[in-house]
Amino acid sequence: MDRNRLVAHALAQPANAVRRTLAESVRATFSGDQVVVEFYDHQFDEILELAAEGRATVTDYPGFSPDFHAALDESNNLSVTRKTGWFEVDIAGEKYEVVMVHLQGTYSQDCYCVLTARNFEKIEELLRLISDFAGELDSAVQVFQDGCWSVSNALRADIERYTLENLVQPAGRIEALRSDIQHWLDSRETYDRYGIPWKRGIIFAGPPGNGKTHTIKALLNHFAINVLYVRSFSTRHGSDSNNIRQVFNHARQQAPCFLILEDLDTLITPKNRSYFLNELDGFARNHGILTIASANDPEKLDPALADRPSRFDRTYVFELPAFSERATYLLRITGSFEEHLRLDEETAKEVAAVTDEFSYAYLKELVLSSMMSWVAEPSRPFREAILANVYGLRTQMSANPITTIAMPLDDDAEDEDED
């Protein structure tokens, strides 16, 4: 059967028959010629990563016409998603073919792949190569978005910019966090000996702009284990329950790992709450999963999440920085500036004294806006520019608070995510 007609025939079947029809049609087409097996979408993602590093080539099969789905996002930017693909893969001179479809009606939310190879030995070689490569990618970050997992080396590069030493937090907090996580990592045998599930959950709660995301990134950089980051459980056509199940199944396969759930108070809704609780603390063993969640409004957190230790064992509250923390942050953020823009200790304390109720995000905005003012009038001292901007920014802060910025997939912004 022609490859285009084969895929079209499979996608024309009822949703619950697409996988079986596609696999059977491919097997019939390659009968006696190739071995055909089902393939995980994340394994195909790793082949694409190999290709990106020049260790494989992945090209569209000649004559195959892929389907695409185009839509406008909330910012009216055009988003184009590949719905089908038939690829030729060449790794070390060995040829494979991969058929990829996104199930009808779900677009990018449910990816299914079929792999063909000369024989089972070649499939085993490919799987070993992928497994070894995945081990090399332990330092990469895997991101769940639109119902699929992908590897983001860009996010890993961004995380590497953050260190525990650069955090400005209340005395003892960073050491408590580091010790808490290290103790959990070192205690696997003890948990196993007493039959206690080797898992842990931590919530970072507090208003945006006070260092939650910065702290998460620094911890991820400090501890060298797999990182799984969930951007959303919701997709346009897929169900939250399937996506939540997919997230936790993948986390169990990647354990030990960090599972990062940013903005837990918006991720969990009345509709998906029971599914999430079941995966977090149900019959399945979440062995080796350390879940770190952030929440901007702890009052909105479901007590079933925040108040039950077997789900989240500890909540750290990130409040507005105190006077000493504001002064330290101002010294740190201006420490790399040119000398005439660098605050000394006395000036940092002077600014800190008049910026009560400022978050780290607003302190940073104060410095940046003051630099712009100084550029327009460089004859006056930077100290005067920054003090003059305090009142205006405080007024803006009351009328239009800075919204939370999610952990970005790019590394272009400099510390924009002080939440």
Description:
By secondary structure, the protein is of the alpha/beta class. The protein folds into three domains: 3-137, no CATH class; 155-317, P-loop containing nucleotide triphosphate hydrolases (Rossmann fold); 323-399. 42% of the residues lie in helices and 19% in strands. It has 16 helices and 14 strands. The chain has helices at 3-11, 18-29, 41-52, 120-136, 153-159, 173-186, 188-193, 212-222, 240-254, 264-267, 273-281, 303-306, 323-334, 345-353, 360-376, 382-399, and strands spanning 35-39, 57-60, 68-72, 78-82, 84-91, 94-102, 111-117, 141-145, 148-152, 200-205, 226-230, 257-261, 289-295, 314-317. A seven-stranded mixed sheet has the order 9-8-11-12-13-10-14, with helices on both faces. Strands 1-7-6-5-2 form a five-stranded antiparallel sheet, sandwiched between helices. A two-stranded antiparallel ribbon has the order 3-4. The termini are far apart.
> Can you give the mean pLDDT?
84
CATH superfamily of the largest domain: P-loop containing nucleotide triphosphate hydrolases
CATH architecture title of the largest domain: 3-Layer(aba) Sandwich
Uncertain ranges: 105-109, 402-417
Write the element-wise H/E pattern from the N-terminal end onward: HHEHEEEEEEHEEHHHEHEHEHHEHEHHHH
Specify the structural class: alpha/beta
Number of helical stretches of at least 4 residues: 16
Global geometry = elongated
- As laid out across the biggest beta sheet, the strand order is 9-8-11-12-13-10-14
Main CATH class of the largest domain: Alpha Beta
Helix content: 40-55%
Task: Count every beta strand, where a strand is a DSSP E run of 2 or more residues.
Answer: 14
> CA-to-CA gap between the ends?
55 Å
Give the CATH topology of the largest domain: Rossmann fold
Beta-strand residue percentage: 15-25%
Radius of gyration: 25 Å
Number of domains: 3
Give the biggest beta sheet.
7 strands, mixed
